[in-house]
Amino acid sequence: MLQSYAVKYANLIKTKARELGFDYCGISKAEFLEEEAPRLEAWLSKNYHGKMAYMANYFDKRLDPRLLVEGAKSVITLILNYYPEKTLPQAPENLKLSKYAYGKDYHFVMKDKLKDLMEAISEEIGEVNGRVFVDSAPVMDKAWAKKSGAGWLGKHTNLINREIGSFFFIGEIICDLEIQPDGAIKDYCGTCTRCIDACPTDAIVEPYVVDGSKCISYYTIELKEAIPDEVKGKMENWIFGCDICQDVCPWNSFARPHSTPEFNLNPQLAEFTKKDWEEITEELFQEIFRRSAVKRTKLEGLKRNIDFVREE
User: Fold this and answer.
1) Among the residues of the chain, which ranges form H helices?
2) What are the tens digits of pLDDT across the range 23-54?
3) What Rg, from alpha-carbon coordinates, does the chain have?
4) Residue 62 to residue 79: CA distance in whole angstroms
5) Under DSSP, is residue 237 helix (H, G, I), strand (E, B) or coil?
6) 213 appears as a binding residue in the annotation
7) Residue 242 annotated in ligand binding
8) Distance between CA atoms of 73 and 178, rounded to whole angstroms?
9) Is 243 annotated among the ligand-binding residues?
10) Is the entire prediction scored with pTM above 0.90?
11) Is the distance from CB of 169 to CB of 79 less than 8 angstroms?
12) Is 249 labelled a binding residue?
């Protein structure tokens, strides 16, 4: 009887997730991430997190969702496509933003959708104890997404989905509801090394291992001090984030434009030239990036990035 309810709940939740616009919904049993524990420990011991001190915090909670939600039995993973229909101007001299930062900050959009799903679950099933997570708590989202069958971890360590590639956000609901879990799928990277070969800063130190402290996204977003001189000439005009390893991935030939209006390219950015970036004022920065992930760098950080690539 319990098993049949678990299957029923899984079907109901997946139907609701589709209605809310999610591109995939998968379920995992809430348990200790046994395979991830030694990998995370090794990654931290090599200082691959650089100045991201928060990555070393809450080690136990990162590996066990039951420490985040009392009585947790299931982790519901949701993915939401953000691949844009329209990109920034592509002239060689133009400066680049990661596609995930084109529109409204995904934290707001995903969290709202996850809360709507949580509400729908409670309406259909009854009171459920759970929490929603979007990249802002010690949750190993890619590990849970992999366990739920959303995709596999590519050699660049991004999750790849066979139908839509890797340009998507991941969020979770950790709850005390027993739901029929899905299983992981196989790795389809094969012998391909395009992401490794394309990375200008050699951040992918070996297949499936990224030295985060060498990543262009780290330099342009996470690092608060000066960007090291040794990466001069390697930034390829990226001023916020980097999409190189995803852009070259053959699986992203399947990427299709998203259907979430909030992720659309800000019209003010659509015609931005290098000169516009170099002359951006505090007023314009606040106007364009008021609800954007780019706001995280503040104007001072964005100008540091612009000045750094201008000197290359």
Assistant:
1) 2-19, 36-45, 59-63, 106-125, 141-147, 194-198, 216-217, 244-247, 274-278, 282-289, 298-310
2) 999 999 999 999 999 999 999 999 999 989 88
3) 20
4) 19
5) coil
6) no
7) yes
8) 6
9) yes
10) yes
11) yes
12) yes
DSSP single-letter state for residue 160 = E
Give the torsion sign (CA, 44, 50, 52, 53). Answer: positive
For 232, the enclosing helix (H) or strand (E) is: none
- Taking the C-alpha atoms of residue 304 and residue 310, their distance in angstroms, rounded to an integer, is 10
Sign of CA dihedral 202, 154, 82, 248: positive
Residues 6+ apart with CB under 8 A from 54: none
Contact call for residues 174 and 134 (beta carbons, < 8 A): no
User: How many domains, in total, are found in the chain?
Assistant: 1
Neighbours of 91 (CB within 10 A): 8
* pLDDT digit string, tens, across residues 250-291: 999 999 999 999 999 999 998 888 899 999 999 999 999 999
204-206 and 209-210: which strand pairing? antiparallel
Q: Which residues are catalytic?
A: 135
All residues at 6 or more sequence positions from 197 whose CB lies less than 8 Å from its CB, including other chains:
248
CB-based contacts of 71, cutoff 8 Å, min separation 6: 129, 176
What's the domain range around 296?
1-312
Query: What would the two tokens of residue 118 be?
Result: 């949580």
The answer to whether 125 touches 76, Cβ cutoff 8 Å, is no
Q: What is the dihedral of CA 177, 178, 183, 189, to 10 degrees?
A: 20
